[in-house]
Design brief:
9 strands; five-stranded antiparallel β-sheet; about 15% helix; alpha+beta; two-stranded antiparallel ribbon; 4 helices; about 210 residues
């Protein structure tokens, strides 16, 4: 992996945002991946999934996110100093020819959560909610099924790079299958709660 550093930045400008059209002012070094200071752009959700808050499902509700925000490892400054860097600045870059929409994030989380639930629980073990959204079919109901984790709930002590957890939550007479998705968990990346489906109701009356 590569790290780019720029020396001589005054302390009073360490929190300022600088825009550079090129990397000519920076020097490049190769470092081991586990020594890299890290840094990743992420997005947070403002509310929990609508279905868990007792809301009615809209025809095609808007999926609202907050960000982008920059997340770094807890020992970011220590890693920077170990490389001889000031540890007070982050260079964020990259270009893409593809446009990014909030729905892209929602469908991305839906694919991860649904695939994980099928792998763990088995095909046909739950009535899926997200297959239409995964295919891009409208209405997608993303904010009805995807949201942030309730901050009042106990959080796991995340020590792994990525974390996926699943379990059933009872809402009235329904048992909803929820998957918690936290990518880059070790770097305090935001966590999401995805309601992938519900437990099927047993057929007590065999008419055949």
């Amino acid at each position: 992996m590569k790290v780019f550093s720029k020396r001589g930045l005054p302390d009073d400008r360490s929190q300022a945002i600088e825009i550079h059209d090129s990397l000519e002012a920076f020097s490049e070094s190769d470092i081991a991946p586990d020594k890299h200071p890290g840094g990743c752009v992420g997005y947070e959700l403002l509310d929990g999934a609508g279905i868990l808050r007792g809301e009615l499902r809209n025809d095609d509700d808007e999926f609202i996110i907050a960000g982008p925000k920059l997340y770094v490892p807890q020992d970011f400054q220590e890693r920077g100093r170990a490389l001889g860097l000031a540890g007070g600045s982050v260079l964020v870059g990259g270009t893409s020819k593809q446009s990014f929409t909030t729905e892209d994030l929602g469908r991305f989380l839906a694919k991860i959560a649904h695939s994980y639930a099928v792998a763990v629980r088995g095909l046909g073990s739950f009535v899926p909610f997200l297959t239409g959204a995964i295919r891009g079919a409208r209405p997608m109901h993303l904010s009805h099924y995807i949201g942030k984790i309730d901050p009042s709930l106990p959080q796991s002590d995340y020590k792994h790079l990525h974390v996926l957890e699943d379990g059933f939550i009872r809402i009235g007479y329904r048992q909803l299958l929820v998957v918690r998705v936290r990518l880059l968990a070790v770097d305090s990346y935001p966590a999401y709660e995805v309601v992938v489906g519900e437990k099927p109701v047993p057929n007590y009356y065999n008419l055949t």
